[in-house]
Amino acid sequence: MNELLAKLVDITYELFGVLLPGLIASAFLLLWWFAAEPLQVALFGSSDFRIGPLNLWNWLSSSSNGGLSSFLPLLVAWYLLGQVLLSASRHSIGDAQSVDNPGRRVFRALTFRISRPPDPYDPALKPLYHAVAAKFNVPGVELQWVQFYPVVKSHLAEHLSKSLVTLYQNKYTLHRSITMASAVLFWLSILTCLSSGVGIVCGVAAHWVLLGGS
């Protein structure tokens, strides 16, 4: 039973922490790509690099095995993109100044330094943490948070039929990865806007409605 619970936890983590962010990020990137389609034609001088919505739909609908041959590469691409976002979003340090400063959190996110609280838990819960940790401590060894968390998480999965620990962990991972994807898309959109500003002089501009939506 414990092994089954562990596998289910791993599946939910891979689904909500890796695959779903990859899918959302790919949707962001496709929307940006469609918005920048006129600039692609002007830049490359041909339509070889154009991947419009109609082209994408024709590729998906013309695949064999009921779309399986198209879905599997997409699934792998979503997973790999999710792994890249997850790895990039993990490189952050605790920042106490960002806790009550939304502007600083946004700035750090746009510079690919996603803020997180300096403490792994609310300092007000410190007495409760020490009281619970004492029940899991090995004689002569006091568990720090990085050792305490996986032990208690495993204990909860074994003794409780329902627990919100994994749900909140997956939610935090999903939020962090989507924040990283949004920061990347923000700078891509800014670059496209600047390029469109130059392109307007030459009679070429991006699809502004799609660009605004991205």
What is the element layout, followed by pairings?
Blueprint: H1 2-35, H2 37-44, H3 53-61, H4 68-89, H5 102-110, H6 126-133, H7 145-159, H8 165-201, H9 208-213
Helix pairs in contact: 1-4, 1-8, 4-8
Q: Can you characterise this structure?
A:
The chain has 214 residues and is mainly alpha-helical. It has one domain (2-92, 143-213). 69% of the residues lie in helices and 0% in strands. The protein contains nine helices and no strands. It has helices spanning 2-35, 37-44, 53-61, 68-89, 102-110, 126-133, 145-159, 165-201, 208-213. Helix 1 (2-35) crosses helix 4 and helix 4 crosses helix 8 (165-201). The longest helix is centred in the last third of the chain and has 37 residues, at 165-201. It is flat, with a radius of gyration of 23 Å. The model has no long low-confidence stretch (mean pLDDT 74).
Q: Features of this protein?
A:
214 residues, mainly alpha, 69% helix, flat
Number of DSSP strands? 0
Distance between the termini: 44 Å
The whole-number mean of residue pLDDT values reads 74
Roughly what fraction of the amino acids lie in strands?
A: under 5%
Q: How are helices and strands ordered from N to C?
A: HHHHHHHHH
The helix count comes to 9
- Unreliably modeled segments: none
Oligomer: single chain
- Give the total of domains: 1
Inertia-based shape = flat
Main β-sheet description = none
Radius of gyration: 23 Å
Structural class of the secondary elements?
Answer: mainly alpha
The proportion of residues forming helix, as a percent range, comes to 55-70%
